């Protein structure tokens, strides 16, 4: 304790040059992080050394996004140092919990895919899988969201403004990344010479990620773009100030900002530069490391597994081929067999508009050698298919890496699929739909290639740290072993009927709700009653996620309460949070509508103690950690077939919220585990949605035959919630009336009835809490540890079960 106190003081004094009497909260935060970081270094070095010494296989997780959030509280918990550091800080007159709250979120991701990468890095450190995550060190993460007059306003995020005490800059680990130029020589291995027109440096920044009980640590290595020549003195001397720094600005733009789009690809050149920049730097780095250790690349696939987090790093297929052929003189066949045996790919979406494609012309200009290699892969691939097919006709256009219909574009998902030994989806339904839809023709040719690994979440952050109250209850009931093996919470189920346990759970939830109510009051001014049912939908705003369905049902409920004010309505608070991509007009209109409905409802005294609507601004990881443990009801209401998995759904269920949801993504597996009676399912199935899209029912017909729906739509379209601008939602509603692409109208009645079932369940509190206990008890399986072991055993063939002998 005294040692920790001395360490923190030393950091404050010698690393920050501050005296305790003048230290600001941020100085204390930095000093604490630096002291804690020191505690990680030994483990980190040992982890890395051991995996070298034993020649174990390493996993490289390539992801353009890592949505980490804060790190201090998590690191302390994993190290078992929370109370020691808290005591040390308190001896120094500082409140650790308050200091933890000012750590900025590392928001280097948009949503699910980025958060998954962060959960997996921590889970690899916790399960002993030697791993390194590669990504970009964006100067600016996902924008901050303000709500002005009900509308989203994007504000730049600036997480590095106080420097980042977790990271180590590695100037010695810098690689040159080329763009443009031309290819000369022959196309033969070792004879192709790519002379880029432009070159930038990728400089590494390393952050250790500490695993549970501090047993192991993994590394997050993020690349920053720097110019080869930061200043042109010639231009400067000639009086051209901007010209003097032009190269620098152009180079550094690559790692300037995260693209805030979480589905539809932006299609801009800078994005393609980001993708190649980090892919090339990562591959050069891992190839060099391997070569130094083994002196050959022939055994690369035995010692290295490269996981592609969606297609964003799919250029890895072409870049690894280039490195093996052009820089190491391997034959095409050798290079191809190494590449294919090393790389695997995770798909996170099936929405056709979300699949990445790049114009061949742009690729040829920016990455001429890679375009040649992709053509080479495609030619050999199509040839082999033709040969194998014999006389049978195969639709070559559908499997080609080049889409010839839309002005010749490279299909990145096809490139990743063909270049990988294994391709996985992220829930059972999603993996099956992959086989049946987007990848059907490729699946025919490679029936073994697609597999499923259902997503997982780290129970350390999302249960132990976010919900210490529930954790204590679980430890009392199921034993301390749950923190090492979360599946042991299964035994919680046997206590579902215990009234004393129920009282404890109610008290824990109440406290969590009070904490959320304070945040809501501070951020929105709205006062909510913790005794009400907290009904929560928090996620990126998207038409397929159907926040619109939720808010339209909210309006129907509001009308129903007003027309029968004396019925014993279950008091509800509808809580929404989430960001819309800056160029996604419909999503922004939905945010606006939620806020407008909130204004009307929250100011109506007839519904005062029955219904409140809240839109909490600036949803991020830290907000989720406060909201989820306070939720009674989790909204997972995507159009069936469209949410690949979802991971928020798992966090809520583990924390004991009930789910109202569709048969989509991992909701199905949650239902399978908690049981039909402990989840409220509604709406069309994925195959019904598919059928309805093929043969749509006229929307006028759907509307006319759906109780309450005509009134709700008319009210919104007619300006009842936007009195200052009556036509504000005219287009939004006309869009729905024209085409119910996301089945908002089709599922409305089923959803409304499901919500009425929720009301009835809430009225029987003992029953509600039995259901809640079942949800927690049966959701340990959704641990990221389980997911990582599955990847390690079946895809990477790495980790504890593949440890070297002796
Ligand atoms: C692509 C090209 C250009 C610009 C941006 C993008 C881009 C960026 C992020 C495309 C997609 C994303 C993110 C997708 C995502 O988060 N998908 C979610 O992944 C989760 C983890 O597997 C799933 O649980 C969710 O169902 C899925 O929507």
Account of the protein in words:
- This protein is α/β, with parallel strands linked by helices and 806 residues long.
- Helix 23 links the parallel strand 19 and strand 20 (572-577).
- Helix 1 (2-15) packs across helix 4 and helix 14 (360-366) packs across helix 15.
- The longest helix has 29 residues, at 25-53.
- The protein is globular and about 85 Å long.
- It binds ligand 26Q.
How do you describe this structure in short?
This protein is of the alpha/beta class. Ligand 26Q binds next to helix 6.
Compounds present? ligand 26Q
- How much is the average pLDDT? 96
Number of helices: 34
Shape: globular
Say what oligomer this is. single chain
The main pleated sheet reads as:
9 strands, mixed
Strand order of the largest sheet: 7-10-11-4-1-12-13-17-18
Low-confidence residue ranges = none
Strand content: 15-25%
Computed over alpha carbons, the radius of gyration is 27 Å
Helix content: 40-55%
Give the end-to-end Cα distance, rounded to a whole number of Å.
Answer: 38 Å
């Amino acid at each position: 304790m005294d040692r920790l106190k001395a360490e923190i003081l030393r950091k404050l004094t010698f690393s920050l040059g501050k005296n305790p009497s003048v230290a600001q909260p941020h100085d204390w935060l930095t000093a604490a992080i630096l002291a804690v970081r020191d505690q990680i270094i030994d483990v980190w070095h040992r982890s890395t050394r051991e995996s070298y010494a034993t020649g174990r296989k390493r996993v490289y997780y390539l992801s353009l996004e890592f949505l980490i959030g804060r790190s201090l509280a998590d690191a302390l918990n994993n190290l078992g140092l929370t109370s020691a550091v808290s005591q040390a800080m308190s001896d120094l007159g500082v409140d650790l919990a308050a200091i933890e709250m000012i750590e900025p979120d590392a928001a280097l991701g948009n949503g699910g895919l980025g958060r998954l990468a962060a959960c997996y890095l921590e889970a690899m450190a916790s399960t002993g899988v030697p791993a390194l995550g590669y990504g970009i060190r964006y100067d600016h993460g996902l924008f901050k969201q303000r709500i002005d007059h009900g509308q989203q306003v994007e504000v730049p995020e600036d997480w590095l403004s106080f420097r980042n005490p977790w990271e180590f800059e590695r100037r010695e680990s810098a690689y040159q990344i080329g763009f443009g130029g031309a290819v000369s020589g022959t196309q033969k291995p070792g004879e192709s010479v790519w002379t880029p027109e432009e070159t930038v440096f990728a400089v590494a920044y390393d952050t250790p990620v500490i695993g549970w009980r501090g047993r192991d640590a993994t590394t997050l290595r993020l690349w920053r773009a720097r110019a080869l020549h930061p200043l042109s003195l010639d231009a400067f001397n000639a009086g051209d100030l901007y010209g003097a720094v032009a190269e620098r600005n152009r180079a550094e733009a690559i790692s300037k900002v995260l693209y805030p789009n979480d589905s539809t690809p932006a299609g801009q050149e800078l994005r393609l530069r980001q993708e190649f920049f980090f892919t090339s730097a990562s591959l050069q780095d891992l190839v060099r490391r391997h070569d130094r250790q083994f002196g050959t690349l022939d055994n690369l696939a035995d010692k290295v597994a490269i996981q592609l987090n969606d297609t964003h790093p799919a250029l890895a297929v072409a870049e690894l081929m280039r490195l093996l052929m052009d820089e190491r003189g391997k034959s095409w066949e050798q290079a191809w067999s190494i590449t294919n045996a090393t790389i695997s790919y995770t798909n996170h979406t099936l929405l056709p508009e979300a699949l990445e494609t790049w114009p061949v012309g742009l690729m040829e200009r920016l990455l001429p050698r890679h375009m040649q290699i992709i053509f080479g892969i495609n030619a050999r691939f199509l040839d082999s298919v033709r040969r194998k097919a014999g006389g049978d006709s195969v639709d070559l256009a559908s499997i080609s890496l080049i889409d010839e219909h839309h002005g010749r574009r490279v299909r990145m998902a096809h490139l990743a699929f063909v270049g990988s030994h294994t391709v996985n989806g992220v829930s059972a339904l999603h993996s099956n739909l992959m086989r049946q839809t987007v990848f059907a023709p490729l699946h025919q040719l490679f029936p073994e290639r697609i597999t499923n690994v259902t997503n997982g979440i780290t129970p350390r952050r999302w249960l132990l740290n976010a919900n210490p109250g529930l954790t204590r209850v679980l430890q009392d009931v199921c034993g301390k072993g749950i923190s090492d093996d979360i599946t042991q919470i299964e035994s919680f189920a046997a206590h579902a009927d215990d009234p004393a346990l129920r009282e404890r759970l109610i008290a824990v939830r109440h406290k969590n709700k009070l904490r959320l109510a304070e945040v809501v009051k501070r951020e929105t001014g709205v006062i909510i009653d913790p005794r009400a049912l907290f009904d929560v939908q928090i996620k990126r705003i998207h038409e397929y996620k159907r926040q619109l369905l939720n808010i339209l049902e909210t309006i129907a409920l509001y009308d129903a309460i007003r027309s029968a004010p004396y019925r014993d309505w279950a008091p509800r608070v509808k809580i929404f949070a989430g960001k819309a991509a800056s160029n996604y007009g419909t999503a922004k209109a939905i945010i606006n509508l939620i806020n407008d409905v909130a204004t009307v409802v929250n100011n109506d005294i007839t519904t005062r103690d029955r219904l409140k609507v809240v839109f909490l601004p600036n949803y991020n990881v830290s907000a989720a950690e406060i909201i989820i443990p306070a939720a009674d009801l989790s909204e997972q209401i995507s159009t069936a077939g469209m949410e690949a998995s979802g991971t928020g759904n798992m966090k809520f269920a583990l924390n004991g919220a009930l789910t109202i949801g569709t048969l989509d993504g991992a909701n199905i597996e949650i239902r399978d585990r908690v049981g039909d009676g402990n989840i409220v399912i509604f709406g069309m199935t994925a195959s019904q949605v598919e059928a309805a899209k093929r043969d749509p029912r006229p929307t006028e017909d759907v509307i006319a035959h759906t109780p309450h729906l005509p009134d709700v739509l008319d009210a919104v379209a007619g300006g009842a919630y936007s009195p200052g601008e009556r036509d504000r939602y005219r287009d939004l509603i006309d869009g729905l009336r024209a085409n119910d692409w996301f089945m908002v109208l089709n599922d409305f009645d089923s959803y409304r009835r499901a919500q009425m079932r929720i009301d009835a369940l809430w009225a029987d509190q003992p029953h509600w809490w039995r259901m809640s206990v079942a949800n927690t008890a049966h959701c340990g399986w959704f641990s990221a540890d389980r997911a990582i072991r599955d990847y390690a055993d079946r895809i990477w063939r790495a980790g504890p079960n593949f440890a070297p002998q002796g």
